[in-house]
Amino acid sequence: MIKPPSILSWAGCAAAFAATLACDPYCEATPEGPGNQDPVSLESCPPLPPGVEPIEGLTVGHVVDRFGGLYLTLSTRPLACGEPAVQHGYCSDDEQLGLSVGFPARQAVVGEHPLGYPLHVEFEAPGRRNVGGGGDIREARVEIFEITDSCVTGRVIGLEDKHGPFDGGFRALRCEP
I need a labelling partner for 165 at 20 to 30 A (CA). Which of 10, 58, 106, 129 fits? Predict the structure, then answer.
């Protein structure tokens, strides 16, 4: 006589199935680290203008000279210098938010810049990843307040309304990958 599986067998199978889903062999866990948004790290950056609130929960902000222009990355993940906000090997996590913007040389200046061509835009937000920009995010923009030898200061405007990761001020340190 064949016995039906016991409740323990079912529980064991369910646990194994859940573990399989949680362990994606094609991605890795986000590294832990302090980031670079602490007051000591940001000493070389100009302050945000009065009335501009910093992006809440930001762990890193960095700028790299790349492709003849600037490549800005802002993230709640402790990404290394030069790592983009989306095209990395870390596992998806709806708690993580990030934005990378590539500014060609002509747009790597103080002022407001819509998040559309010729800028390269990628972001991760809960339930959404966008690489390349396009769509209604062109109505959002990045305003650069100041560019120095050590830092870029600015703010993201209108991206949250387009289901993007965040709005607010940032201070991004220059670095070399």
Answer: 106
Whole-angstrom distance, CA of residue 129 vs CA of residue 165: 10
Given the DSSP bridges, would you call strands 168-174 and 60-66 parallel, antiparallel or unpaired? Answer: parallel
Backbone angles phi, psi at 176, to 5 degrees: -125, 125
b/e for 6-15, b at 16 or more Cβ within 10 A? eeeeeeeeee
| Alpha-carbon distances, residue 137 vs 2, 84, 106, 131, 161 (angstroms) | 60, 18, 21, 11, 9
pLDDT in tens, 27-51: 777 777 789 999 999 999 999 999 9
* pLDDT, tens digit (0-9, with 9 covering 90-100), for 154-177: 999 999 888 888 999 999 999 987
Phi and psi at residue 62, to the nearest 5°: -140, 155
Question: How do strand 151-157 and strand 141-147 relate by DSSP bridges?
Answer: antiparallel
Please state the pTM of the whole predicted model.
0.81
What's the alpha-carbon Rg for the chain, to the nearest Å?
A: 20
